[in-house]
Amino acid sequence: MTLSTRHLLGIKDLTPQDITTILETARQFKEVLQRPVKKVPSLRDITIVNLFYENSTRTRISFELAEKRLSADTVNFSASGSSVSKGETLLDTVNNILSMKVDMVVMRHSASGAPHFLARHIPAAIINAGDGVNEHPTQALLDAYSIQEHKGTLEGVKVALIGDIMHSRVAQSNLYLLKKMGADVIVCGPPTLIPKHIGEAFGVKVEYNLRRALEWCDVANVLRIQLERQNQVLFSSLREYNLAYGISRRLLDSLPNDVTIMHPGPINRGVELDSDVADSGRSLILQQVENGVAIRMAVLYLLSNQSSA
After folding, report:
1. 10, 159, 252, 281 — which has fewest CB within 10 A?
2. Phi/psi of residue 270, each to 5°?
């Protein structure tokens, strides 16, 4: 199985067949992860550098674990404590790393388009682990895998993306993927946190009332408020946001339908989700974390041009 691209820069660049191939490959790797010995030699001769210019916990650990499960050699790089603090450019940093014979680069950067810049200038395969407010493709893939695993399909599933749509790279990647795979999508949040023309741009519904969005959907993927990316006040307070858009157990129990809850993390408990929702049987949050390793194993394997698992 192969992909139509040699990099994973965003869901925007993938075909529906690419997405299907990644999800099917991830299913096979998830079976591997259930075995007593969870390691396979698929990437034994591959060297991967994890290049993180932004703080990360789940994504970085998930990629590192996926690489180790595939028997790859890994190098971890963080901007803090490196020559970046001395003024070294992104391209110089990566060229220095590549001179050490690295085959693949997993990159997270606060600047939108940074992985695309690298892909144009260096020969290694690039995997985007999040770039600015642009995309986070492996998060969207693991979200899709989790929905497909729970619902049996993506076609026709009603998904609500709720929260800070404006500043969320997870939202953008999810929108691209869900529309490509035939899901019905609604975005919901305060008007100040939803881009004005998103409905027309993506062909999705826009709803500003949380209850109406929840009554419509099968799955609610709840996004955190990204205060670090907001350069102005876009709502009165976190307390006010919670009253209008926070999801509580009482709210879910009052709905006529059964809504499955997802969240890409980290959760702001008591803001977008109450703890008794995040930790309930309706939540797929821990399954998303588990599925993230299988998805990243699939992406690494497919982009490595290895012929055998």
Report:
1. 281
2. 85, 0
